[in-house]
Amino acid sequence: MTRPPISRRPLASRETAWARAAARRLSAGRITPNQISQAAIGFAALGALGLAASVPLGGPYQAACLFLAALCCQLRLVCNLLDGMVAVEGGKSAPDGPFWNEAPDRIADILLLAGAGFAAGSPALGWAAAVFAVLTAYLRELGRAEGQGGDFSGPMAKPQRMAVLTGAAVVAAFEPFGLSAAEVLGAALWLVVIGAAVTAARRSARLIAALRARR
Q1: Can you spell out the DSSP letters for 128-144?
Q2: Would you say the pTM of this structure is higher than 0.70?
Q3: Is 102 exposed, middle or buried (0-12, 13-18, 19+ CB in 10 A)?
Protein backbone atom coordinates (compact mmCIF):
# COMPACT_ATOMS: atom_id res chain seq x y z
CA MET A 1 0.00 0.00 0.00
CA THR A 2 1.40 3.40 -1.00
CA ARG A 3 1.74 5.83 1.85
CA PRO A 4 0.20 9.30 1.38
CA PRO A 5 2.75 12.07 0.85
CA ILE A 6 3.90 13.81 4.03
CA SER A 7 3.60 17.58 3.69
CA ARG A 8 4.72 18.60 7.21
CA ARG A 9 7.49 17.35 9.42
CA PRO A 10 5.98 14.98 12.03
CA LEU A 11 6.60 16.70 15.37
CA ALA A 12 5.34 15.56 18.74
CA SER A 13 6.01 19.06 20.09
CA ARG A 14 3.23 20.38 17.85
CA GLU A 15 0.74 18.67 20.17
CA THR A 16 2.14 20.07 23.42
CA ALA A 17 0.09 22.51 25.49
CA TRP A 18 2.72 25.25 25.43
CA ALA A 19 3.08 25.15 21.64
CA ARG A 20 -0.67 25.26 21.08
CA ALA A 21 -1.05 28.13 23.55
CA ALA A 22 1.79 30.09 21.95
CA ALA A 23 0.41 29.50 18.45
CA ARG A 24 -3.06 30.65 19.50
CA ARG A 25 -1.67 33.81 21.04
CA LEU A 26 0.46 34.61 18.01
CA SER A 27 -2.42 33.84 15.66
CA ALA A 28 -4.63 36.30 17.53
CA GLY A 29 -2.05 39.07 17.15
CA ARG A 30 -0.53 40.90 14.23
CA ILE A 31 2.58 38.74 13.92
CA THR A 32 2.68 36.77 10.67
CA PRO A 33 4.14 33.31 10.04
CA ASN A 34 6.68 34.89 7.70
CA GLN A 35 7.91 37.18 10.47
CA ILE A 36 8.33 34.20 12.78
CA SER A 37 10.35 32.44 10.08
CA GLN A 38 12.51 35.53 9.66
CA ALA A 39 13.09 35.68 13.42
CA ALA A 40 14.71 32.24 13.16
CA ILE A 41 17.48 33.82 11.07
CA GLY A 42 18.08 36.38 13.80
CA PHE A 43 18.40 33.71 16.47
CA ALA A 44 20.69 31.66 14.23
CA ALA A 45 22.90 34.68 13.55
CA LEU A 46 23.16 35.39 17.27
CA GLY A 47 23.94 31.73 17.96
CA ALA A 48 26.59 31.68 15.23
CA LEU A 49 28.18 34.78 16.72
CA GLY A 50 28.21 33.15 20.15
CA LEU A 51 29.86 30.03 18.75
CA ALA A 52 32.46 31.87 16.69
CA ALA A 53 33.38 34.17 19.58
CA SER A 54 33.40 31.54 22.32
CA VAL A 55 36.84 29.95 21.93
CA PRO A 56 38.79 33.17 21.19
CA LEU A 57 37.27 34.85 24.26
CA GLY A 58 37.99 31.94 26.60
CA GLY A 59 37.26 31.76 30.32
CA PRO A 60 33.79 32.55 31.66
CA TYR A 61 32.99 34.48 28.49
CA GLN A 62 33.49 31.28 26.51
CA ALA A 63 30.94 29.40 28.62
CA ALA A 64 28.47 32.28 28.38
CA CYS A 65 28.80 32.39 24.59
CA LEU A 66 28.31 28.64 24.31
CA PHE A 67 25.21 28.66 26.50
CA LEU A 68 23.87 31.53 24.38
CA ALA A 69 24.51 29.49 21.24
CA ALA A 70 22.71 26.47 22.70
CA LEU A 71 19.72 28.64 23.60
CA CYS A 72 19.64 30.18 20.12
CA CYS A 73 19.65 26.74 18.49
CA GLN A 74 16.52 25.88 20.43
CA LEU A 75 14.85 29.25 19.81
CA ARG A 76 15.48 28.74 16.12
CA LEU A 77 13.58 25.44 16.38
CA VAL A 78 10.76 27.10 18.31
CA CYS A 79 10.37 29.60 15.46
CA ASN A 80 10.37 26.73 12.96
CA LEU A 81 7.61 25.06 14.96
CA LEU A 82 5.40 28.09 15.51
CA ASP A 83 5.56 29.57 12.01
CA GLY A 84 3.88 26.48 10.58
CA MET A 85 1.33 26.27 13.38
CA VAL A 86 0.34 29.92 12.99
CA ALA A 87 0.12 29.50 9.22
CA VAL A 88 -1.86 26.26 9.19
CA GLU A 89 -3.73 25.95 12.47
CA GLY A 90 -4.03 29.72 12.83
CA GLY A 91 -5.20 30.22 9.25
CA LYS A 92 -2.64 32.96 8.50
CA SER A 93 -0.82 31.40 5.55
CA ALA A 94 0.37 33.74 2.80
CA PRO A 95 1.08 33.22 -0.91
CA ASP A 96 4.82 33.62 -0.32
CA GLY A 97 4.73 31.39 2.77
CA PRO A 98 6.48 28.42 1.11
CA PHE A 99 9.54 30.58 0.43
CA TRP A 100 9.76 31.90 3.99
CA ASN A 101 9.12 28.43 5.35
CA GLU A 102 12.21 27.02 3.64
CA ALA A 103 14.76 29.76 2.88
CA PRO A 104 15.31 30.92 6.49
CA ASP A 105 15.85 27.30 7.53
CA ARG A 106 18.73 26.93 5.08
CA ILE A 107 20.26 30.25 6.15
CA ALA A 108 19.95 29.27 9.82
CA ASP A 109 21.63 25.90 9.20
CA ILE A 110 24.51 27.56 7.38
CA LEU A 111 25.02 30.24 10.02
CA LEU A 112 25.03 27.88 12.99
CA LEU A 113 27.14 25.14 11.46
CA ALA A 114 29.65 27.56 9.95
CA GLY A 115 29.85 29.34 13.32
CA ALA A 116 30.58 26.02 15.01
CA GLY A 117 33.32 25.40 12.45
CA PHE A 118 35.07 28.65 13.35
CA ALA A 119 34.75 27.79 17.06
CA ALA A 120 36.23 24.35 16.41
CA GLY A 121 39.17 25.88 14.59
CA SER A 122 38.11 24.17 11.38
CA PRO A 123 35.99 26.45 9.18
CA ALA A 124 36.10 23.88 6.37
CA LEU A 125 34.46 21.29 8.63
CA GLY A 126 31.70 23.74 9.52
CA TRP A 127 31.08 24.52 5.87
CA ALA A 128 31.04 20.80 5.02
CA ALA A 129 28.36 20.24 7.67
CA ALA A 130 26.39 23.17 6.25
CA VAL A 131 26.62 21.78 2.70
CA PHE A 132 25.33 18.37 3.75
CA ALA A 133 22.55 19.99 5.79
CA VAL A 134 21.39 21.96 2.76
CA LEU A 135 21.71 18.85 0.58
CA THR A 136 19.34 16.86 2.80
CA ALA A 137 16.77 19.65 2.53
CA TYR A 138 17.25 19.87 -1.24
CA LEU A 139 16.55 16.17 -1.63
CA ARG A 140 13.41 16.48 0.46
CA GLU A 141 12.12 19.35 -1.66
CA LEU A 142 13.10 17.59 -4.88
CA GLY A 143 10.94 14.68 -3.81
CA ARG A 144 8.10 17.05 -3.02
CA ALA A 145 8.44 18.69 -6.44
CA GLU A 146 8.18 15.25 -8.02
CA GLY A 147 4.96 14.55 -6.14
CA GLN A 148 6.50 12.19 -3.62
CA GLY A 149 5.83 14.30 -0.53
CA GLY A 150 8.46 15.44 1.91
CA ASP A 151 11.00 12.88 3.10
CA PHE A 152 11.87 13.87 6.66
CA SER A 153 13.86 10.72 7.41
CA GLY A 154 17.13 10.81 9.35
CA PRO A 155 19.36 9.92 10.98
CA MET A 156 20.50 13.55 10.80
CA ALA A 157 17.52 15.70 9.84
CA LYS A 158 17.15 19.25 11.15
CA PRO A 159 15.93 18.36 14.68
CA GLN A 160 18.81 15.91 15.12
CA ARG A 161 21.37 18.43 13.81
CA MET A 162 20.18 21.04 16.26
CA ALA A 163 20.10 18.51 19.10
CA VAL A 164 23.72 17.58 18.41
CA LEU A 165 24.82 21.20 18.16
CA THR A 166 22.87 22.24 21.26
CA GLY A 167 24.27 19.36 23.30
CA ALA A 168 27.79 19.99 22.06
CA ALA A 169 27.62 23.68 22.97
CA VAL A 170 26.47 22.85 26.51
CA VAL A 171 29.09 20.14 26.97
CA ALA A 172 31.82 22.33 25.48
CA ALA A 173 31.06 25.02 28.05
CA PHE A 174 32.30 22.66 30.78
CA GLU A 175 35.27 21.27 28.80
CA PRO A 176 34.93 17.82 30.41
CA PHE A 177 37.58 15.08 30.56
CA GLY A 178 40.31 17.48 29.56
CA LEU A 179 38.70 18.14 26.18
CA SER A 180 38.75 21.69 24.90
CA ALA A 181 35.60 23.40 23.67
CA ALA A 182 37.04 23.35 20.15
CA GLU A 183 37.55 19.57 20.32
CA VAL A 184 33.99 18.97 21.55
CA LEU A 185 32.50 21.14 18.81
CA GLY A 186 34.74 19.53 16.20
CA ALA A 187 33.55 16.06 17.20
CA ALA A 188 29.95 17.25 16.99
CA LEU A 189 30.52 18.62 13.50
CA TRP A 190 32.00 15.33 12.33
CA LEU A 191 28.89 13.61 13.69
CA VAL A 192 26.70 16.03 11.74
CA VAL A 193 28.73 15.59 8.55
CA ILE A 194 28.64 11.80 8.68
CA GLY A 195 25.01 11.64 9.79
CA ALA A 196 23.87 14.15 7.17
CA ALA A 197 25.80 12.30 4.45
CA VAL A 198 24.01 9.08 5.44
CA THR A 199 20.71 10.97 5.48
CA ALA A 200 21.34 12.37 2.01
CA ALA A 201 22.22 8.93 0.68
CA ARG A 202 19.15 7.40 2.28
CA ARG A 203 16.82 10.07 0.92
CA SER A 204 18.40 9.76 -2.53
CA ALA A 205 17.83 6.00 -2.56
CA ARG A 206 14.23 6.37 -1.40
CA LEU A 207 13.52 9.03 -4.01
CA ILE A 208 15.08 7.04 -6.84
CA ALA A 209 13.08 3.96 -5.85
CA ALA A 210 9.86 5.98 -5.70
CA LEU A 211 10.45 7.55 -9.13
CA ARG A 212 11.21 4.18 -10.68
CA ALA A 213 8.06 2.72 -9.15
CA ARG A 214 5.92 5.29 -10.96
CA ARG A 215 6.61 3.70 -14.34
Answers
A1: HHHHHHHHHHHHHHHHH
A2: yes
A3: middle
Integer Cα distance of 149 and 134 in angstroms: 18
Angle at 189 between CA 185 and CA 194, to 5 degrees: 150
CB atoms within 10 A of CB 40: 24
Query: Per-domain residue ranges for the chain?
Result: 14-213
Cα gap 169→166, rounded to integer Å:
5
At 67, the amino acid letter reads F
d(CA 46, CA 66): 11
- For the cut 50, the answer to whether the pLDDT of residue 94 exceeds it is yes
* Structural contact between residues 82 and 56, judged by C-beta atoms closer than 8 angstroms: no
Average pLDDT, the chain: 93
Alpha-carbon distance of 73 to 157, in angstroms, equals: 14
Q: Could you give the CA distance from residue 138 to residue 103 in angstroms, rounded to a whole number?
A: 11
Fold of 14-213: Four Helix Bundle (Hemerythrin (Met), subunit A) (1.20.120)
Q: Are 65 and 51 in contact (CB under 8 A)?
A: yes
Alpha carbon distance 201, 207 (integer Å): 10
If pLDDT is split at 50, 70 and 90, which confidence band does 7 have? Answer: low
Position 109 pLDDT exceeds 70: yes
Neighbours of 81 (CB within 10 A): 21
